[in-house]
Specification:
7-stranded parallel β-sheet, 60s Ribosomal Protein L30, Chain: A, Alpha/beta knot, alpha/beta, 40% helix, 2 domains, 11 strands, 12 helices
Length: 287
């Protein structure tokens, strides 16, 4: 049955081999890896790697343009393949060597999917969507530049039930193949908003009954004494420089995570996780 479907979708072995030779010859994909840790770039789309990422993409009805899969993956994942067929997503058979060329590393597990470029949400749509919620947590990132950190922050935010994550257009990382991977599927469910001016966005949120907390080592107020509002924005600063002065001025209150160790501070994604779940603890228990 599987061989029947493969032939139906992908044609004969001769046509497939000819197709892939032509693909490589024409260098259909731009697989250059950026020096800025943003992973392999695919023209007019983003690639995701591995079985888990594909399952989450299928489950969330992400806009998958095409799936490249090895014979072994298709043979051993018939249930996933049936779902791909039902959704009428284009599948092309690929050698392991070709998948290596597309992948950021060799942990693709025999499958790579190409998604449409990420469609960012507007702040207005998020405010409208959250208007009926009793609790709403928004994370705002002040010039976070590392894709790995951004993805890990999104993972914590989604697990904690955040409404969205806000990033800036300039001097900030956007949604890439690396952020999809490090978010462990969170980006398929968590809205990302990209704004021109973060301070202006924070002020707009304050006008819509959000209280804005800035995470800062300089703060005196500990997070468990902060008494988080039911509608909160938590702002996290750049990995090295922290919050900009303009962003800091836009915050209603600054909070800090207490520490007893010798190193200076937590990684920004670790800090985000602690802050998200402290908000969840307080608002869930009514503290």
């Amino acid at each position: 049955m599987l061989n029947y479907y493969l032939k139906k979708i992908m044609g004969s072995s001769k046509s497939k081999n000819k197709y892939y030779k032509q693909k490589r010859k024409n260098n259909h994909f731009d697989t250059n890896i950026s020096k800025n840790n943003i992973g392999p770039q695919v023209s007019n789309g983003i690639i995701i790697e591995g079985k888990h990422a594909l399952v989450e993409a299928l489950k969330s009805d992400a806009n998958i343009q095409i799936i490249y899969a090895s014979d072994n993956f298709l043979r051993n994942n018939s249930i996933i393949f049936e779902e791909i067929l039902q959704k009428k997503i284009k599948v092309e058979n690929a050698s392991i060597e070709y998948l290596h060329e597309l992948a950021d590393n060799k942990s693709h597990q025999g499958v790579i999917a190409k998604l449409s470029n990420y469609q960012y949400h507007t702040l207005e749509s998020i405010i409208e969507k959250a208007s009926s919620k009793q609790n709403s947590l928004i994370l705002a990132l002040d010039h976070i530049t590392d894709s790995g950190n951004f993805g890990a922050i999104c993972r914590s935010a989604e697990v904690a039930g955040a409404t969205c994550v806000i990033i800036e257009n300039d001097r900030s990382v956007g949604v890439t193949s690396v952020t999809y991977k490090t978010s462990a599927g969170a980006l398929f469910y968590l809205p990302i908003v990209r704004v021109v001016n973060l301070s202006r966005a924070l002020n707009e949120l304050k006008q819509n009954n959000y209280f804005v907390y800035g995470a800062s080592e300089k703060a005196k107020l500990k997070i468990w004494d902060a008494n988080f509002a039911n509608r909160s924005v938590i702002v996290l600063g750049n990995e090295e420089k922290g919050l900009t002065s303009l962003t800091e001025k836009s915050c209603d209150e600054l909070v800090t995570i207490p520490q007893k160790g010798s190193i200076e501070s937590l990684n920004v994604s670790n800090a985000a996780s602690i802050l998200c779940f402290e908000f969840l603890r307080q608002t869930s228990l009514g503290l």
